[in-house]
Amino acid sequence: MQGDLRVDEALNFLLVGDLVGVAVFAASGASAAVAKRLDLFGVALVGFVAALGGGILRDLVIGAVPPLAFADWRYAVTAVLASIAVFWLHPQLNRLRRTVLLLDAAGLGLFTVTGTLKALDAGVPPVGACLIGMLTAIGGGLARDLLTGEIPVVLQRDIYAIVALGGAILVTIMREIGLSGPGPMALGAVLITGLRLLALYRRWSAPIAVP
Amino acid sequence: MQGDLRVDEALNFLLVGDLVGVAVFAASGASAAVAKRLDLFGVALVGFVAALGGGILRDLVIGAVPPLAFADWRYAVTAVLASIAVFWLHPQLNRLRRTVLLLDAAGLGLFTVTGTLKALDAGVPPVGACLIGMLTAIGGGLARDLLTGEIPVVLQRDIYAIVALGGAILVTIMREIGLSGPGPMALGAVLITGLRLLALYRRWSAPIAVP
Amino acid sequence: MQGDLRVDEALNFLLVGDLVGVAVFAASGASAAVAKRLDLFGVALVGFVAALGGGILRDLVIGAVPPLAFADWRYAVTAVLASIAVFWLHPQLNRLRRTVLLLDAAGLGLFTVTGTLKALDAGVPPVGACLIGMLTAIGGGLARDLLTGEIPVVLQRDIYAIVALGGAILVTIMREIGLSGPGPMALGAVLITGLRLLALYRRWSAPIAVP
């Protein structure tokens, strides 16, 4: 139906999707830092890394240097503002726990789509592009947990990484069959987000090795 | 005696050496993840990072983007299959502890050789190429330990990193004097592996600072 | 007054500044590793990462591969010699705690200046260059703390990262108005170092979020 890529629109979609994801993941990093009693600058730094770590890794492996996080000031400013907002507002955020989980799922969907598309556009083969899409989505959370001294939650709460990987495969197939316009891709992000929320709601979990 | 580099053979040697190393290190990462009670996907992810983290770092610093781990699907598939195998077979693996140590030593030898050669081929000067060869060999284990919340064992069980560094220096000298064919390099990998096993067997250790 | 850049002098300034910073940060990493009872090679490795991790990250994001740490043998040798010196001399170093803090502040000033200048020279826009300058200065310390199993001190002792960020902004402005010669830049490094020492002396600290 759609399929034809209007370049400006597509770029805008990537940018807006990215920035919303940045704000959401910065908020998740800042929340973790506040919980560890880090001060204002520690909170901003963990928020920055949680929001932009996945994208920096993505840009390094596809050879897009300097990474967007450094080339476009809007990324860093979005991450820092979202972190500072959490620093001041976090008591209210506790009451908004559901909202945070919803936003985190949205960030997962958005980063998976933009990460996979960027890797494919850079000429990475499909399997690699799917891995890069997944790492873009989970990389920031990994870095956040390492910085705050935790075993990464993504390694334990598995129906997170696997949703990102499944979403990256979906995006790759959609692009292969020509459905790479903003509309279909937005739909892909919504699907990934929905699957993550369903996994949360139904408490889906993966097997643990028998001892 | 040999010294003349038949390119196809050399490439095949690098590929097979790399993939065996990938499987072995994936198994070591997956074992650590199983021990931490991570679930199937966490085990696969730690296995992936342990197997491919060193090579990704190597490719980033020599400017080979996208890194092989993403450019060639056989790397990721090998790492994930080896991790899943450990997930299902790990009770048997406990009885195979000696085999695992042997395979880990083989991985150390193989990654040191391929990492150092790739760095030299990319035009990195000798000292840097030796460091890159060592980091290729120990990088995955470092990442594995960081992800599972441990102080990296390579920092404590020193006769590991230093064997890799010594091996990288040997490879650099061999290449300098023209012994860079598959045969001599396979011999180099065997020497490094043997030295590591000797260090294990003799319980060699390095000095700790006097308090 | 000055402003005209004599290239050789400037390069020498960058090199000497970098190497002094490398030695200082290697010493800080080695001290942390000695305190964790790591052995000689673990101490050398943590010293290497603490000294060169920030610069490797900087070179990767500005696309300067292989990073200086691998391209120029003087960097690695300086880091390893400084680490070994700490390994042997550390009981005396305890009495030199003030000296270590002074040197660490000097390293902060030097790395901020060289990191920011290199990013600007590579064509990174101002906001990104300031972030890269700051990350160059704090990246090694971050890696040191992750390797030794600590929550990074830079996230808690905030008047460290923010001094680097302020210094990077100062360097960017100075370069914009033509004050990019060795003299003004050395002055910038002294200012950043002085501010860090003042923050230590006055025990400045940043706010923590209200619970």
Automatic annotation (TrEMBL), chains A, B, C:
Residues 17-90, 102-175 form the Glycine transporter domain. Belongs to the UPF0126 family. Its main location: membrane. The chain crosses the membrane at residues 12-33, 40-61, 73-89, 101-120, 126-147, 159-177, 183-201. Keywords: Cell membrane, Membrane, Transmembrane, Transmembrane helix. The keyword Acyltransferase does not apply. It is a multi-pass membrane protein. It comes from Paractinoplanes tereljensis. GO terms for cellular component: plasma membrane. Pfam families: Gly_transporter. It is found in: Cell membrane. InterPro entries: Gly_transporter. This is Membrane protein.
